[in-house]
Amino acid sequence: MSESTKKSALVLHVPGGGEPLVYALSEETANDTAARVRDLMAAGSVHSLQLEDGTSAAINFAHVVSAHIDELPTLSHVYGSRTRSRGGFRA
Predict the structure, then answer these.
(1) What is the DSSP string of the chain?
(2) What residues does each domain of the chain span?
(3) Which of 16, 42, 44, 78 has its CB 3.0 to 4.6 Å from that of 62, i.e. a possible disulfide?
(4) This model's pTM is above 0.90
């Protein structure tokens, strides 16, 4: 995959361990968040992020142990990914 087609994800580690929460970010949000992740963690406030599929997610950084921006993983459950299968009922 070329550098220009790589997609970014916000990876959050929360108390209690287990698998991290992974959010597929829009390109603009990924660039903004990468520059601000340290400040968001230090402030511990709630911040809304635009996801790749056009939805948004409110993240309460007060409940996050560790956060970083990484390449979007291909074989895991990712919130906000355009390729993610939607759950629930279909008409």
Answers:
(1) --GGG--EEEEEE-TT-SSPEEEEBPHHHHHHHHHHHHHHHHHT-EEEEEBTTS-EEEEEGGG-SEEEEEEPPSSS--BT-TTPPP-S---
(2) 3-71
(3) 44
(4) no
- 36-74 b/e (C-beta count within 10 Å ≥ 16 → b): ebeebbeeeeeeebbbbbeeeeebebeebeebebeebee
Neighbours of 79 (CB within 10 A): 17
CA–CA separation, 86 and 84 (whole Å): 6
Interval 25-49: pLDDT, tens: 998 999 999 999 999 999 999 999 9
